[in-house]
Structure formats: structure tokens, C-alpha cells
Write a structure and sequence with these properties.
The structure is a single chain. The protein is mainly beta. Among the domains are: 38-101, Trypsin-like serine proteases (Thrombin, subunit H, Beta Barrel); 120-189, Trypsin-like serine proteases (Thrombin, subunit H, Beta Barrel), CATH 2.40.10.10. It is 14% helix and 39% strand. Strand 10 and strand 11 form a beta hairpin.
Length: 197
């Protein structure tokens, strides 16, 4: 009888996980420490709310994917970890946006930046806008990496094997490669606007 109950509970757990978009064995669903520089980016409007991921580069500045904030209008608000923010710059072609928070939210540490794509790469973000997830892959070619991502992870960091930030997630999906923005395209814009030393 006990074995039947355990099997029943395991089946229910798999069904619930699948219904929530958590594919058992594909994505780590165990609690993972969330790096302090990763942000939850939300556009709250009527009748929708969209949640993506971002990366803090200073106490009042974060970057995310431009498509995360494309629906921002006069009837919606932008929040980064619950703090009101505004879009300072948006580049739709390279798919990144720079966000300025109304008040400082993070004291650091902030990620080190690198162009080293050798070894393993980790794509990080809030899968489904809720569960923090890390998926490991490798550099494929150009701005393509093999780490899988899911909806909600756009704008999240891609870290190299020593934990340095090499880019942000633009797009991808289960069973597909992930396209990233080169971090130094973003850095050039941040420095040009005096938002990064």
C-alpha cells in the first residue's frame, strides 16, 4: 500500500510540474542561490503583466532585452525587483535596453565583464517569470550558445566558466540554441551615457 501511495504522489508531482512548464530532468528545479546582480524585470499594465530578467550593472542601472519592455506605454509601469524604473535607452536591432531605477536597489557585487566564450557557458534567468533557472551549454558560433532557455529568461545573463558576464539572453527555447547580445555592445552604450566607469 505504501509503495502505491509513493508512486501516486510521484505521478501527481510530474503532472503538476509538466502543467507548470517544468519538464522533469531537463531543467534544474532544486533551489539555486540567485546571484545578487540578477534582476526581475516587470512591465505591469492593463490587462497584462510581463516578467523577464535583467542584470544590474550599478546600484541604479540594469540592462535587459529590449523586447522585455516593448509593450511599455502610458498605461503601464516598469519595475526592477519591485522598484519603479524607466527606460533610458533601447536598441531594438541589438535587442537590449538600459533601465534606470528610481532609487538605488543594489550595492553589488556587480558582475565582471568578459569576451571569453571558451569552456562552459551558463544562461540564467527567471523561467516563466517565477522560477530562477541556470542551464549550461557551450559557445556554438557567433552569438549562439547551446544552453537552453525558456520564456521569462530573456535579458538574463550568460556567464562564462569563471562567472564573468559575456552577454545577455535575447532568445531561444527548449531544444533550441540561444542567441545572446555581446556584453561589450551594451558596455559601450553605458559608458557613452556615463552610466558605467
Amino acid at each position: 500500500m505504501g509503495r502505491i501511495v509513493v508512486s501516486f504522489i510521484a505521478c501527481i508531482s510530474v503532472l503538476i510540474s509538466t502543467a507548470l512548464g517544468q519538464v522533469p530532468g531537463r531543467f534544474d528545479v532544486s533551489p539555486i542561490p540567485i546571484p545578487e546582480y540578477i534582476a526581475k524585470v516587470q512591465v505591469v499594465g492593463v490587462p497584462y503583466t510581463y516578467t523577464g530578467t535583467g542584470v544590474y550593472v550599478s546600484p541604479v542601472t540594469a540592462v535587459t532585452a529590449a523586447h522585455n519592455v516593448r509593450d511599455l506605454d502610458s498605461k503601464s509601469q516598469l519595475f526592477v525587483d519591485g522598484v519603479e524604473a524607466e527606460v533610458v535607452y533601447k536598441n531594438d536591432q541589438q535587442d537590449f535596453a538600459i533601465l534606470k531605477l528610481s532609487v538605488g536597489s543594489k550595492d553589488g557585487p556587480f558582475p565582471k565583464l568578459s569576451s571569453d566564450l571558451s569552456g562552459s557557458l551558463t544562461a540564467c534567468g527567471y523561467r516563466g517569470g517565477v522560477r530562477y533557472t541556470e542551464n549550461v551549454g557551450n559557445h556554438k558560433s557567433g552569438r549562439w550558445v547551446t544552453a537552453e532557455v525558456q520564456r521569462g529568461m530573456s535579458g538574463g545573463p550568460v556567464l562564462n566558466q569563471v562567472g564573468d558576464l559575456v552577454g545577455t539572453i535575447i532568445g531561444g527555447g527548449p531544444g533550441r540554441d540561444t542567441y545572446i547580445t555581446d556584453i561589450f555592445l551594451i558596455v559601450d552604450e553605458l559608458r557613452g551615457r556615463g552610466l558605467l566607469e
